[in-house]
């Protein structure tokens, strides 16, 4: 699978197409995909989402994705990387620098449910207005358009960060006094969730130079839950996403996320969620059909 690179802090791209943009691929940067007009399917890490006007998707480094166009679609893309955060920090005063650090933390250490990142109508309206303005500046190229584009991109990224941040448990949220090692461990777990050999306590303890006997207590002290519990909950969140947005069978999900077998996944999922994976999928489908019928 091809991996795209970005060699500047950020870039914006405006496209209109009635064909699939490209095969499934990955990035080494963050990408915001805003749907101006049109409809189709966005497949992210094997999970499919129907897109329409006003949807905004966040892709993190190494996410694989593919857009399948159903009706002619206008996209607006904002791409940015670690250089963006560093360049912003270099130009910031003390107060602004603290905000940039918080932004960097949010994008690197929080998780989000795949799909449209905007949860509230107010932010949807605000982002639409900003994207409309970005397109005009991008096309017209009037004096100081680059400076204006820069500020508007910063605002869109900040709105996305807010939508991510409100879903984060309090003990996981950024604090300038937080232990940096704990945040690095969280990022390490998320980055290696498909590599169980790297998630063994001995491996993590060695990687972060913490006693293996103290590791779980250390993690719980700063997050409120044990490291193993965090790993399990993060894996189960991925299981939920597969159940909601893919046709993968339970045994396929178990294999992908390295559960021993299907029965192991069933047992763990029911222990933490109070329902089996199959029951969870059926319940969600039933709820969706009920909502559709109610609005028909």
UniProtKB/TrEMBL annotation:
Superkingdom classification of source: Bacteria
InterPro entries for this protein: AraC-bd, Homeodomain-like_sf, HTH-like, HTH_AraC, RmlC-like_jellyroll
The entry's keywords: DNA-binding, Transcription, Transcription regulation
Molecular function GO labels: DNA-binding transcription factor activity; sequence-specific DNA binding
SUPFAM superfamilies: Homeodomain-like (SSF46689), Regulatory protein AraC (SSF51215)
Domain spans labelled HTH araC/xylS-type: 183-283
PANTHER family: ARAC-FAMILY TRANSCRIPTIONAL REGULATOR, HTH-TYPE TRANSCRIPTIONAL REGULATOR EXSA
Name recorded for this polypeptide: Transcriptional regulator
